[in-house]
């Protein structure tokens, strides 16, 4: 199954089950949770009824989970990216945080900020937590996953590199692309051999199988849940493969008018155009 969050033409929001180019508006069913995060929290994804059918073109997609309590991101989680950045090997995943108000949906513009031209792409697999918990055992971690989505952790590199703390470069408005859909584990199947592929203006710039993660999903969930309780709807962005623009010669920065796509097999394709923040305003 796959689900999307959306805004209707009248300005109200909801979520639904995706059937090709149609959406069954599950949030319109009497008694149903009002949001996708609410449905995940209630453990209702497998049971919730289809509601009125909408054409996908008649709604505006929102980030898969518009209101996650936490967005935890893993840095340098593919050996190719660790090597290109010159980072030392580590025994534990590098974790940084992204704010929910940086998120945008599929087809919405990534904003290149006024203060920098060093805007980079980072295609990633996002994991959405279904069942919360603290100190989750690694061998039980995958049972806590509600589903997967594509993520583009667009990074403002000069601001990221002001100090050793990543937060400034990872939290500019309109830089966390997340979508288009949440795909359940049963629908996604085994993702080990599925590739994370990023294209910039139709040119492949990143391409690596998920099995190449240094720290696999279960280990990340176990590690993160040791220091913070995970809740339904929380998001973990699992890291980007090598090939980022900052480590190319010359650097390859995203600019206004560019189109960037993140494709992850059955998880789908996330597409965004880049717009200068000044023009968007």
Automatic annotation (TrEMBL):
Belongs to the FAH family. Residues 70-275 form the Fumarylacetoacetase-like C-terminal domain. One of its GO terms (biological process) is carboxylic acid metabolic process. SUPFAM superfamilies: FAH. Keywords: Isomerase, Metal-binding. The keyword Metal-binding applies. This is 2-keto-4-pentenoate hydratase/2-oxohepta-3-ene-1,7-dioic acid hydratase (Catechol pathway). InterPro entries: FAH, Fumarylacetoacetase-like_C, Fumarylacetoacetase_C_sf. GO terms for molecular function: isomerase activity; metal ion binding.
